[in-house]
Amino acid sequence: MTRRRALAVAAAAALLLPGCNPAACSAPADLPKDKALELASSSRAAPAADVDVVFDALGVPHLYGATEVDLSYGLGFVHARDRLFQIFVYVHAAEGRLTELLGEDLLPIDRQNRLLTWRLDEQEAALSERDRALVQAYADGLNDGAGHAGRSAEMALLGVDWEPVFVRDVLAVMRLQQWSQSVGFTEEMTRWRLARTLGVNDPRFRALWQDTPDNGHSIVAADSHSGDAFAFGLDRDKARYHRAPRASSSPASSSSSPLAQPSPLAQPSRGLQAVTGVLAGLKRDVGDRFARGGTGHSNEWVVDGDHNASGAPVLCNDPHLDHAAPGVFYMVHLEAPDFTIAGGSFPGIPAVLIGHGRHIAWGVTNAYADTQDVVVLRPWAGNPDLYTLDGGPMNFTRRTERFRLGKAGDDEVIADEYRESVFGPVLPAGWGTFGGAESWNTDDERLVLQWTAYQFPERTGRMMSAFWDLARATTIDAAHDAVQRFTAPAMSIAMAIAQNDDGPAGIHYRLNGIIPVRGDDQRVDFPRLGVTRASGFVDVLDAAQKPQLDNPAAGFFVASNQRVVDNGVLSQRFVGYEGARHYRASRAHERLAKLLEGGNRPSPEELLSIQQDVTSIEARTLAPLYGARCPKALPGRDADLVARFCKAVADFDGAYTKEARATPFVRVHQRFKEVLLRRHLSADLSDEAADQSWVIMAVNGLVERAANDRATDGDRALLDDPRTDAVEDFDAVLALATKEALDLVVQEAGSADADWRWAKLHTLQFKGVLARAPWVGGLFQTGEHEESGTGTAPRAEAPSTSNRLRISSGAGLRNFAVMTSPPTVQLVNDTGQSGHFGHRHLEDQYPLWTKGETRRLQRRQSDVEADNDGRLRLRPAP
Question: What's the mean pLDDT in 362-383?
Answer without folding.
Answer: 95
